[in-house]
């Protein structure tokens, strides 16, 4: 287990996951080949490579469906508090197409043989979502050829994780953040954790730590909060986690992604009611996109 803290400089970058609004990129599956690694991780890699997210679906193009999507889009903007919330609903639904980002769910085998996932605590000096726990990741850039490249590039920039150490095995269904950011979770396996020496980017990351992946299926040190959005009731999950003398809270989008990742990895549902919302989305959003 590792945990690093750095004194932060006076400046801080603000390009965090929930604020990233860049054009979408095309996703293609890319994996690396490894010779070393435990037999358990090799078996896990084979299992996860067989996982296929539900296919994307398209909406009908008739006028009634288009109008309904535009009305829903207007409500989405109003609910998340964008400045455009007071403006008329535009006729161009492209305005509501979610922007793309990717996060890396990097799994490795702990000293006790358990599966663990790498997490970060954002800088407390950032202007938005400061001090919150997140997965390494961020916005898609123009040169990123797929979500694998986005996730591993951002992980290298944020915590110094060399992409060549990560065996990317699958993608999960996209998640939709409250700011209409379409987040693609990328699952990768770190075969040799001893080759990874975390180097947090002081402008973005205050700490790097790891947690057992299975904890996101257990009803321990967990609580939930009921919320309602666009007429849909759903739960926000909070997980309290302590490592060494540090306490962390893992919640919201990050918790929702990790619950799904743990369910796919361990091939069983969580021991609690997940209650994901099923909103009506703008036309360009897949029906499988979640709003945690």
UniProtKB/TrEMBL annotation:
<dbReference type="GO" id="GO:0010945">
    <property type="term" value="F:coenzyme A diphosphatase activity"/>
</dbReference>
<keyword id="KW-0378">Hydrolase</keyword>
<dbReference type="GO" id="GO:0015937">
    <property type="term" value="P:coenzyme A biosynthetic process"/>
</dbReference>
<protein>
    <submittedName>
        <fullName>Nudix hydrolase 15</fullName>
    </submittedName>
</protein>
<keyword id="KW-0460">Magnesium</keyword>
<dbReference type="Pfam" id="PF00293">
    <property type="entry name" value="NUDIX"/>
</dbReference>
<dbReference type="GO" id="GO:0005737">
    <property type="term" value="C:cytoplasm"/>
</dbReference>
<feature type="region of interest" description="Disordered">
    <location>
        <begin position="49"/>
        <end position="73"/>
    </location>
</feature>
<keyword id="KW-0464">Manganese</keyword>
<dbReference type="InterPro" id="IPR000086">
    <property type="entry name" value="NUDIX_hydrolase_dom"/>
</dbReference>
<dbReference type="InterPro" id="IPR045121">
    <property type="entry name" value="CoAse"/>
</dbReference>
<dbReference type="GO" id="GO:0046872">
    <property type="term" value="F:metal ion binding"/>
</dbReference>
<dbReference type="InterPro" id="IPR015797">
    <property type="entry name" value="NUDIX_hydrolase-like_dom_sf"/>
</dbReference>
<dbReference type="GO" id="GO:0006637">
    <property type="term" value="P:acyl-CoA metabolic process"/>
</dbReference>
<dbReference type="GO" id="GO:0008893">
    <property type="term" value="F:guanosine-3',5'-bis(diphosphate) 3'-diphosphatase activity"/>
</dbReference>
<keyword id="KW-0479">Metal-binding</keyword>
<feature type="domain" description="Nudix hydrolase">
    <location>
        <begin position="98"/>
        <end position="254"/>
    </location>
</feature>
